[in-house]
Write a structure and sequence with these properties.
Blueprint lengths: L4 H15 L1 H5 L17 E7 L10 E6 L3 E2 L2 E2 L3 E5 L4 E4 L4 E10 L5 E10 L2 E2 L3 E4 L4 E3 L8 E6 L5 E5 L3 E2 L2 E2 L5
Antiparallel strand pairs: 1-2, 2-5, 3-4, 5-6, 7-8, 8-9, 8-10, 10-11, 12-13, 14-15
Length: about 180
Amino acid sequence: MNQFPCQRLLFCILALAASGAGLVAQCTRTWTVGSLPGANNRVTCAIEWDADGAGPAPARLVVGGYFTAIGAVATRGIAIYDDVSGQWGPLGTGIQGGVDALAAMPNGDLIAGGGFAIAGGTIVNNVARWNGSTWTGLGSGTDSGVTALAVLPSGDLVAGGLFSNAGGSLVNRVA
């Protein structure tokens, strides 16, 4: 699982800078256009997610946002990409509303945060857990949108956003 992509990117940039300008000059900076089918509305977050942790299945790309489809596939706010088939797919019946943040838990669960009340037909109040087959809420959720998620080295989940209450406790935008 890639929980801290910014740290890995910073390490790569520092390593390249330390190695000299000749190596940097060899990089070709281009966008690959049209390699994946696009979404019908904005994508706000992406994460590499490995559902079985250290198991045999590879990590896969998951994106969240305010879309209802990617390519011809109905996905409702969250979608997973299969490298083998080259196809996008839904996670259950999706999320009713926008997904602004994703986090991968050490046990293989995926957490989605955003401005939504329902995930997979279950009331979740802005934050939901996908265990590979079903969506569930995290306690009673939050009273407003979740815009950031992070997993600490201890395995604890931290959420930030527009909320002042999480799980019935006053938390002032960080829980």
